[in-house]
TrEMBL record:
Organism listed in the record: Rhynchospora tenuis
Superkingdom of origin: Eukaryota
Record domain GST N-terminal: where: 5-86
Lineage, uppermost ranks: Eukaryota, Viridiplantae, Streptophyta, Embryophyta, Tracheophyta
Entry GO terms, CC: cytoplasm
InterPro entries reported in the protein's UniProt record: Glutathione-S-Trfase_C-like, Glutathione-S-Trfase_C_sf, Glutathione_S-Trfase, Glutathione_S-Trfase_N, GST_C, GST_Zeta, GST_Zeta_C, GST_Zeta_N
Catalytic activity: RX + glutathione = an S-substituted glutathione + a halide anion + H(+)
PROSITE patterns xref list: GLUTAREDOXIN_2 (PS51354), GST_CTER (PS50405), GST_NTER (PS50404)
Keyword terms, alphabetized: Transferase
Protein name: glutathione transferase
GO biological process, one term: toxin catabolic process
One Pfam assignment: GST_N
Molecular function, one GO term: maleylacetoacetate isomerase activity
The protein's Enzyme Commission number: 2.5.1.18
GST C-terminal domain ranges (all copies): 91-216
Amino acid sequence: MADEGKLTLYSYWRSSCAHRTRIVLNLKGLKYEYKAVNLLKGEQSDPEYEKINPMKYVPALLDGDTLIADSFAIALYLEEKYPEKPLLPQDLKLKALNLQIASIVCSSIQPLHNLVVLNYIEQKLGPEEKNTWFINLLNRGLAALEKLLKGCAGKYATGDEIRLADPFLASQIYVAIRRMQMDISSYPTLSRLYQVYEQIPAFQAALPENQPDAPSSS
Ligand SMILES: N[C@@H](CCC(=O)N[C@@H](CS)C(=O)NCC(=O)O)C(=O)O
């Protein structure tokens, strides 16, 4: 029997995809049970977890008897199911921009620095090549995002309301600044947004270092 109304998030503290999903859940004011899947221990490949996400990735969200795996799909599902505090604006042009930014993060940046890709590069070419790949990829992505936001950013990414683009940007900028220690001052809009996000409780609570499975030294 499905547990109606109960949300369970399969997450890993440092996963940027899980990070943005936690922000979306917090923005929607939704409480959820946190189930850690340790990617470094390979728990994503556990046959039991594979039943939850056949791609062997986090995040996955269980909402009653509805199971969704993929941060973009989860965000759109939550937007439809919980339309209060909308993340997608009515204005079609602005809506398209939000979808574009979310999709760029989800399909043109993050998949190219996924653990499975980085491990492969490290094995074949060594740790330096892995880092060079990672930083070049981030610079390419951040440069594109910075250009896209030119002239449309307000208090937040696409105006004065927090929208879908914001959790996707927050998680990706975090990877650049906190994980790869990049100086992103050449991307002034993204730098400013990062500081704005740092002040918002829904974003703070979703930070990797604030998750139950984060090591105490993070
Ligand atoms: N498109 C998926 C990608 C999910 C994904 O790549 N998750 C990463 C963490 S951010 C993962 O679980 N990687 C495990 C691995 O590469 O083995 C989404 O946005 O949720």
